[in-house]
Amino acid sequence: MESLAQNKMRTLLTMLGIVIGVGAVICTVAIGQGGSQKVQEQIQNMGENIVFVAAGSVNISGVRMGSSATKTLTVLDAQAIAQQIPTVARVSPGVGASVQVINGNQNWYTRVSGVSPEYFPIRRWPIERGSGFSQRDVDVAANVCVIGRTVAEQLFGSQDPTGQTIRVKSIPSRVLGELSAKGQSTVGQDQDDTILMPYTTVQKKIAGIDWLQYIMVSASSAGDIDAAEHQMRMLLRQRHHLRPAEDDDFIIRSTNELVQAQAQTSRVLTLLLASVASVSLLVGGIGIMNIMLVSVTERTREIGLRMAIGATKQAVELQFLCEAVVLSMLGGLAGIFFGSIASFLVSKMLHWTTVLSLTSIIVAALFSAGVGIFFGFFPARRAAHLHPVEALRFE
């Protein structure tokens, strides 16, 4: 430390490369992990282990009509899934339509979804004010609804919509409650711009159909999603009397694919950011090696004197190696401090979630020590192999 303190400015400038490198690694990894966490929260916000079954395509004289063209998905299918598949926790039939909703002199064009009471826990969607509808409301096709935050603001402003009556298309419907705000989905859709009603009401009084457009299913656990998909596919093919050569007349999707894709993207992004920032560490290491070589040249007589009075090659090598490691470790500690501060400022100023990882801090500290050892080894070895007599003669 005394040796390093003799040239304070040179020591500080040498450490600067390591400080910037470690700080950049910690900050960029925090940004990447924050983005990953934000994506995970959005995916979890979609619902609990969701498996989505939708009406599929139909082939008419060789012409494929596209998705949602079949009418074979029924309420009995939803009931069979709930009763016969053990890996399924909850099931909600679903139908939907785009409608104009009116309250007094206010109106709004939105999407109405006909669902069952199980839809709320499947989507992890609590009700902020009022209550949801019951199974009895489904059984009698009651004219009741629960509205999203966006619809409530458009029709009622700041007033409490609970207990009010609105017209959904041409059907007077009593508002039982208001959903808590969910915000935008991962594809940018406003999830709060919606109205939920009993699916029987939407089927009979709004859409005018007796089949389902989709079935929303919640698997018992994340590990059961693949099994639930397979079991549902087998059950529905059997119920729809499809031969082995025939295509499915339904579509099954789950959040697993989205989770895996987003996780892979986040890993690649974090690795890319950390790799770019690591270049600063390399530059800092080269700076340490350069300064240590200069230091060896400047202290040649000192090295010769030490070796003349009994210092071994290992002692001289260890001395310079320790100086290089101390330089890099001090720079690493300062980099951890400034990287943490930078992560906090990014979070506050840019409103971007950052996650400081203990693993990234430990890796950065070890990496900075490794830089000191790697780039300090050659100057230390060069010092240790100086001939004492030639060193003493050096001017």
Keywords:
395 residues; alpha+beta; six-stranded mixed β-barrel; 2 domains; 18% strand; elongated
Percent in strands: 15-25%
Give the ordered list of helices and strands.
Answer: HHEEEHEEHEHEHEEEHEHEHHHHH
Q: Share of helix among residues?
A: 55-70%
Count of all domains: 2
Widest sheet: strand ordering = 4-5-10-7-9-8
Write the layout of secondary structure elements.
Layout: H1 2-5, H2 8-46, E1 50-55, E2 59-60, E3 63-64, H3 75-84, E4 88-103, E5 106-115, H4 119-122, E6 127-130, H5 135-139, E7 144-147, H6 149-156, E8 165-168, E9 171-179, E10 194-198, H7 199-207, E11 214-219, H8 225-239, E12 250-254, H9 255-298, H10 300-308, H11 313-350, H12 358-384, H13 388-393
Parallel strand pairs: 5-10, 7-9
Antiparallel strand pairs: 1-11, 1-12, 2-3, 4-5, 4-8, 4-11, 6-9, 7-10, 8-9
Helix pairs in contact: 2-9, 2-11, 2-12, 9-11, 9-12, 11-12
Q: How would you sum up this structure, described in words?
A:
The protein has 395 residues and is an alpha+beta fold. The chain has 2 domains: 2-42 and 260-393, no CATH class; 71-248, no CATH class. It contains 13 helices and 12 strands. The chain has helices at 2-5, 8-46, 75-84, 119-122, 135-139, 149-156, 199-207, 225-239, 255-298, 300-308, 313-350, 358-384, 388-393; strands at 50-55, 59-60, 63-64, 88-103, 106-115, 127-130, 144-147, 165-168, 171-179, 194-198, 214-219, 250-254. A 6-stranded mixed barrel has the order 4-5-10-7-9-8. A hairpin with a 2-residue loop joins strand 4 and strand 5 (106-115). Helix 9 packs across helix 11 and helix 9 (255-298) packs parallel to helix 12. The longest helix has 44 residues, at 255-298. It is elongated, with a radius of gyration of 33 Å. The model has no long low-confidence stretch (mean pLDDT 84).
